[in-house]
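ugh ok so i messed up the first submission bc i forgot one of the chains. this is the corrected input, ALL of the components this time, i swear. 896 residues overall. if the numbers dont match what u have on ur side tell me asap before i send this to the collaborators (the ones from the other lab, u know who)
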Amino acid sequence: MKVAKFGGSSVASAEQLKKVARIIESDESRRVVVVSAPGKRDDADTKVTDLLIELGQAFQNGEDTTDELNAVLSRFKQIITELDLTDRVLKDIKEDVHKLFTEGGDIDFKLEALKAIGEDSLAKVLSEYLVKVGMDATYLNPKDAGIMLSDEPGSAQILDESFDHIYNIRKRDQIVVIPGFFGYTKEGKLVTFSRGGSDITGSIVAAGVEAELYENFTDVDSVYCVNPQIVHNPKEITSLTYKEMRELSYAGFSVFHAEALIPAFKAEIPVSIKNTNNPNALGTIIVSRKEVRGDPVVGIASDKGFMSLYVSKYLMNREVGFGRRLLNILEDEGISYEHTPSGIDDLSVIIRENQMDEEKEQVVINRINQELNPDTVYTERGLALIMVVGEEMHCHVGTAAKAAQAIGDAGVNIEMINQGSSEVSLMFGIKEAGVKKAVQSLYNAFFE
Amino acid sequence: MKVAKFGGSSVASAEQLKKVARIIESDESRRVVVVSAPGKRDDADTKVTDLLIELGQAFQNGEDTTDELNAVLSRFKQIITELDLTDRVLKDIKEDVHKLFTEGGDIDFKLEALKAIGEDSLAKVLSEYLVKVGMDATYLNPKDAGIMLSDEPGSAQILDESFDHIYNIRKRDQIVVIPGFFGYTKEGKLVTFSRGGSDITGSIVAAGVEAELYENFTDVDSVYCVNPQIVHNPKEITSLTYKEMRELSYAGFSVFHAEALIPAFKAEIPVSIKNTNNPNALGTIIVSRKEVRGDPVVGIASDKGFMSLYVSKYLMNREVGFGRRLLNILEDEGISYEHTPSGIDDLSVIIRENQMDEEKEQVVINRINQELNPDTVYTERGLALIMVVGEEMHCHVGTAAKAAQAIGDAGVNIEMINQGSSEVSLMFGIKEAGVKKAVQSLYNAFFE
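and heres the new structure output, hopefully the right one now
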């Protein structure tokens, strides 16, 4: 059994939904479908979820809501007209909205319920269309699917007991279409995940039904081994592990909402990234443990906007708790850090620049001077990190040398190296100006 | 003005003291001399300080102390006989010991005073000999030199006000000979530094008199760029910075008691390591800031006996305080750590194996599992660290590549790399079995 999740661009129009239907039809193991709300049809378009948020705001402000509601209805009207479906979904939307606007209740939960109308309506539309073209499909509300969430509107978390309920979906004979993005509290109130939460629903359902595969249909053929804005026409990654995906997503690869994958990761379910517009493309598959592949490096990621905070003190390494106290100061000031490479008497903390503006920097430096009495403390901004990623790096002697050589050959100085004992990644810190040259050179060394 | 400190092997016998006198005579800027107690004359010998500790133990146990006292006296008797000096020092020792054994007072302070007799007597002997051979020299007691210490027997700390007093030594016309290893509290009680504390006295006096140079006479010509037990007949280091010395001393280079140098380091006084037995050898000089030398690497050090504690957790880097909480557990369990290389979702802590036996390891792993709920936690023992050290590494593109290449060429896999933004050192973690091959290969790459 496969769980197929279709993102906003895959369900943005009637034309796209026809592709989705053909994809579902082409593989009978695709028995559970999770959908987003209709996304943008072109750059100038507005996502249905954003239209619903505007509707909610107008209502909250006591303004007239006719235009906002009509904008939502018109998106769905166009879809059902082109698919030649009944107008039941339009009636449902009007009824649901009317009820929310007129009945009592907490405004926060009204806004939550409004936001979820896009996914909910699309699931109804798609299931009706699937039946129309001859499939035995049905809409399944998240409550009936068993998706029970914590009472945290806008950032709800799955409750552990949900998975047993969701497992029962396996017993159904029909193809079920479940709206993503929301579920229900134990008290029956509708709550949503964080934005982009349809990925979370897909991952939860895949884990719950113990799917053989979680297919995530989007609008790219696959994940590239390097940022295509830096390297022209780079190679595609056919398969990578969860760990590799995480290391890559750190710096520039953003195919996934990483949190979304937690349930699938824990259940060790492989995730396939596929293109709705080109379903025959191989795509990229994310697995728990990969078979031996032979290549040490699977991808190269890079990101700018880092800074280092450097602290040195003669005999630092004899001072018990020095590093911990430094990290305490940062935590105290609300700054999260990325890495802490260290020498004997010095310690650098790598921080995203947006974590520490000039004013905050002064506060932190003053506290370090007062509380830790160092010999030197200073910061350096404008750093970039490059991640060279691959689970097999640890069994290839010389990978680090090859990578460092490639960066040196590009004339770029390495400011920092950080390789953990896991050896899934090798991180280089360089000045931002050198990123393009260094990444191109690394690509040539490992992929050409 | 130079401060010359002579270590235990340099003052172990009359023959050695003659060399010391010639060294002092050969440079009239050597105006302040600090001495250790007589050390071993050969491998089977016992240091005078150890004889004094035995004397103190016998006294404390209420045993007969005649043999122990005679052992001390006999060492000095042999020296003064061969140098043809008066026996005043023997009378002083007997008198001091008798006073300590018969007068009232705290046992801890009696033991302290006994321990200091070696340095004190040797300073008297040397000053008398210098006068005898025609120099204008005098013994100077630490109290008169102004060395005022905190009331911490066996690990006393210098009091800041001492330095002003010590500065007055500049005004003296004579060569002064100061015994190392001890000083006095404000109440006038004798207290000692930690063992090896003559280096501390030398460094304090050099800082106090604002010496142009602190000469540390020992029994090696210089510091080698790599452990001579690994590489046959390696190159000598002529000059290195304090920072480089510290990074090297981390892993196998132990010329210095690193704490000893703090006063000299703070006063930015260069330290020269010279050989009493070969004073014309260039030696090694340790400076605050070195002039540009052109070579990126000054030395390679290595040490075994490390282990790594590996912790991974999906989305670790979103969990504020994860690293800090891990370090808290270690601190709580009394474990100090060396480095913390990290990936996105994993963190390794490098620890000296002697910090964590199997039992303690189980406690730590249990706490990590309970308090941090990681996906994986395990340890790996039998690691070695190699430090490639040089202040100029940061202005040489390709040093890291060259080093990693050399290790790879030796067929050794790199488990871990840690390079801080200071770039004074580049640290590699490898399995212990590969150390010799890796260090030899690095030596060939950077020094041959």
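quick check: Chain B touches chain A through 67 residues (CB under 8 Å). that seems consistent at least. The domain at 2-219 of chain B is CATH 3.40.1160.10 (Carbamate kinase).
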